[in-house]
Amino acid sequence: xxxxxxxxxxxxxxxxxxxxxxxxxxxxxxxxxLAARAGIIAPQFLPSPSxxxxxxxxxxxxxxxxxxxxxxxxxxxxAFLLAAIMAIxxxxxxxxxxxxxxxxxxxxxxxxxxxxxALVPLSIIxxxxxxxxxxxxxxxxxxxxxxxxxxxDMRRVPQEFVEVARTVGANSRQVMTDxxxxxxxxxxxxxxxxxxxxxxxxxxxAEIVAADxxxxxxxxxxxxxxxxxxxxxxxxxxGLIGLxxxxxxxxxxxxLFRYL
Length: 260
Prior knowledge:
The structure is a single chain. By secondary structure, the protein is mainly α. It has one domain (63-256): MetI-like fold. The chain has eleven helices and no strands. The radius of gyration is 22 Å and the shape is globular.
């Protein structure tokens, strides 16, 4: 079960990979707990896992954590879907037509290097302090990265595939749907999975803007009162949501692209 894990590019059974993942996570948590109990790490800086679990249970039962999680998840998915709906066709057009790429790529390269926290004041001026600002900041951190990834995926479609499709009489729409999109499908889904993770990383920034709900708000409020276990509990919740989402998208990838 485990021997192939030590072979270069070897294939292991799903059960073997799962067992190694669980064992590695358990080892890290155990070392963390031992270090905290031994006093190697001050609890105000890094509380033990057991204290984090207690804080998490308190937040679930007494502080409406489930509601905050639902609010944050909705914000992230709305912003991410908006980014994807815009980025996929724009990225495809940028790679398919040189004039579109020449017009848009320099501006996109410029904007994607701008730090999102620096744009918080402008976003408040433009949209106020409501939901629009939070979704805009999440969208901003996702769209400009995703559109270039989509454009790169489209550029990697082999030119000979396009030429063969033209030879057998395919028009531009058929080349796009039957050749390009089918070829770039696996990498496109991978890039969507990666940028969804990036969208979650901007959650704290988005939810400190006059927020009264969301995981970011919970973490920021706990930080203000130096409640480190609650801060860690909020971070762990985000990590768990990301882990579950990522595994579901990996499963979808395997189901859709069995030929890989």
